[in-house]
User: Which sequence fits this backbone?
């Protein structure tokens, strides 16, 4: 099967390049990094079920940690994955209160995705149909698909790993989550274009 | 039949694009989140004190009026423990009248003579030193968000002061 054309450089590559330049002394490139990765991080945070204010705090904390530890990060190219891991852990830490720390291997799984009732009223008919299908997937698949949807194909595998998915759950092959979404949409006569 | 071991194809990408649009619509990234993060990073990196914005009503709404009011004199004042800063923005002087709206001139006054004022804009940053009376001019700034970082090269004990972001 012919791969569909995508941008040669995924989000992760662009982010890694901006971060490497920042470390090399181009301080203003950090703004570029923030602009590139904030949508992915927002969705990674919100997919954990955190309140909006909690998610904003988690993302800000992750960036401040990045600045503090910039020189000790081994792989600047993997900065997107590093930020996703920190944001996810930070949302859980803030949501549960500081009294309980989670170990590296111990970040809990995301809950099923929720949309505010108010948000549901502004969806288009097609988005409502899509939401009803997404909601049938496992919480892990919902989380994965929501976050990678904001990245590019070359980033899928690394992001899945950052979210704690087994290696090979997605990219370059479709993986079970994307396959399930495809199947459930395929069985809906109302979805076909 | 398709299988989960197949390569990701155009249909999968199209499905993911729909998922992205769904969440972008239902749970959008707060519009000023990225700017607030950048500001927090700057404050953190400089160990800076954040100045308080004393009057913001005029400058932030100025851009739509710029064409009908060629010489706006709106000014805004920031106050911190060590220093106060007043700035006003107007069109930069230019030979071509058509270009008058494209660049911004900021006239400012700071309570510390010889202070270094850095204006951080979408284009990067411009730096100027205030004169013996504390006055300074930044003549070639772009429209849009800007914040100022004030340091005193003659006084290493003074923490840098950073202002909230305003629109010029």
Assistant:
């Amino acid at each position: 099967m012919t791969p569909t054309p995508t941008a040669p450089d995924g989000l992760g590559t662009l982010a890694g390049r901006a971060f490497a330049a920042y470390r090399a002394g181009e301080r203003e490139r950090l703004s570029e990094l923030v602009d590139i990765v904030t949508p992915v991080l927002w969705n990674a945070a919100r997919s954990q079920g955190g309140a909006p204010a909690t998610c904003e705090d988690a993302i800000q904390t992750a960036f401040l940690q990045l600045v503090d530890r910039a020189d000790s990060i081994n792989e600047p190219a993997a900065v997107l994955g590093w930020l996703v891991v920190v944001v996810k852990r930070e949302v859980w830490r803030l949501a549960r209160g500081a009294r309980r720390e989670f170990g590296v291997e111990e970040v809990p799984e995301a809950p099923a995705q929720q949309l505010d009732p108010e948000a549901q009223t502004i969806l288009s008919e097609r988005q409502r149909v899509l939401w009803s299908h997404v909601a049938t997937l496992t919480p892990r698949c919902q989380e994965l698909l929501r976050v990678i949807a904001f990245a590019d194909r070359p980033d899928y595998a690394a992001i899945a790993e950052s979210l704690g998915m087994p290696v090979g759950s997605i990219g370059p092959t479709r993986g079970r989550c994307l396959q399930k979404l495809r199947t459930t949409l395929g069985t809906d006569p109302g979805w076909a274009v | 039949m398709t299988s989960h071991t197949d390569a990701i194809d155009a249909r999968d990408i199209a499905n993911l694009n729909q998922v992205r649009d769904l969440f972008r619509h239902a749970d959008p990234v707060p519009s000023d989140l990225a700017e607030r993060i950048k500001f927090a990073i700057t404050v953190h990196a400089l160990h800076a004190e954040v100045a308080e914005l004393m009057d913001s009503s005029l400058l932030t709404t100025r851009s739509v009026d710029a064409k009908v009011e060629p010489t706006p004199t709106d000014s805004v004042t920031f106050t911190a423990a060590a220093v106060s800063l007043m700035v006003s923005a107007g069109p930069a002087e230019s030979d071509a009248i058509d270009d008058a709206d494209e660049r911004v001139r900021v006239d400012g006054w700071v309570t510390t003579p010889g202070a270094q004022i850095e204006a951080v804009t979408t284009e990067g940053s411009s730096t100027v030193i205030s004169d013996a009376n504390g006055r300074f001019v930044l003549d070639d700034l772009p429209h849009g968000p800007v914040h100022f970082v004030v340091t005193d090269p003659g006084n290493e004990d003074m923490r840098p002061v950073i202002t909230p972001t305003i629109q010029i």
Q: What stands out?
A: Chain A has one domain: 11-186. The mean pLDDT of chain A is 88. The CA atoms of residues 123 and 131 of chain A lie 9 Å apart. Residues 11-186 of chain A form one domain.
